[in-house]
Amino acid sequence: DIFEQFFGGGNPFRQARQIPRYSLKIDFMEAIKGVNKEVEVEGKKRKIKIPAGIGEGVGINFGDFILSVNVKPHEIFERDGDDIFVKVGIPYSMAILGGDIKVPTVDGDVKIRIRPGTQSGTMIRLREKGAPRLHGRGQGDEYVRINILIPEKLTKTQKQKIEEIKDEGL
Predict the structure, then answer these.
(1) Residue 139 has what DSSP assignment?
(2) Which long-range CB contacts under 8 A does 44-52 form with residues at least 24 apart?
(3) Long-range contact list for 91-99, CB < 8 A, 24+ apart?
(4) pLDDT by residue for the chain (170 residues), tens digit each?
(5) Rounded distance, CA 36 to CA 50, Å?
(6) Residues 84/139, Cβ–Cβ less than 8 Å
(7) Got the DSSP string for 107-129?
């Protein structure tokens, strides 16, 4: 090859064997937990295993083909790497007085304590409640953002009570 003689080395324009690429759309929870799927590759049905903790756009090399994973968004969870984010609304009275609430995680609901005086936008970290680490042990964290729900309409009695505490400087 004249290119090799002139410049030394291989021809950068020569095509290497192309491995076919396919994409597969999976649900958010399938990406978190892992799933076995049956796909059709070049006319043959193949059973493949998607590992727990796989993320959006990650490619898996199966040797004779590469599979890119697309993850459908979830209605309440958002993901950033191994961490999961969720927004939870609490009543105004709980923000002032504190209390316990259940919050969703990818492994089911857990009970958390809301401290008295919690502000809207407060983030609570739940260790090891996120997505499994794809290459390694453990899980990411879940972050719960607290939003205080302000009532749009009050009863006459509720309005009177709010007026009373307003006079006390609250």
Answers:
(1) B
(2) 50/24, 50/26, 51/134, 52/132, 52/134
(3) 91/148, 91/149, 92/148, 92/149, 92/150, 92/151, 94/118, 95/119, 95/120, 95/146, 95/148
(4) 555 555 555 555 555 567 888 899 999 999 999 999 998 888 899 999 999 999 999 999 988 889 999 999 999 999 999 999 999 999 999 999 999 999 999 999 999 999 999 999 999 999 999 999 988 889 999 999 999 999 899 999 999 988 888 888 76
(5) 6
(6) no
(7) TS-EEEEEPTTPPTT-EEEETT-
pTM: 0.82
CA distance 86 to 109: 12
Angle at alpha carbon of residue 106, lines to 56 and 84, rounded to 5°? 55
Question: How many angstroms separate the CA atoms of 164 and 127, rounded?
Answer: 41
Give alpha helix (H) positions in the chain: 2-7, 28-33, 92-97, 156-167
Query: How does strand 83-91 pair with strand 142-149?
Result: parallel
**No. of H helices and E strands in the chain?**
4, 11
CA pair distance 136, 44, nearest whole angstrom: 32
* Max CA separation in the chain (angstroms): 93
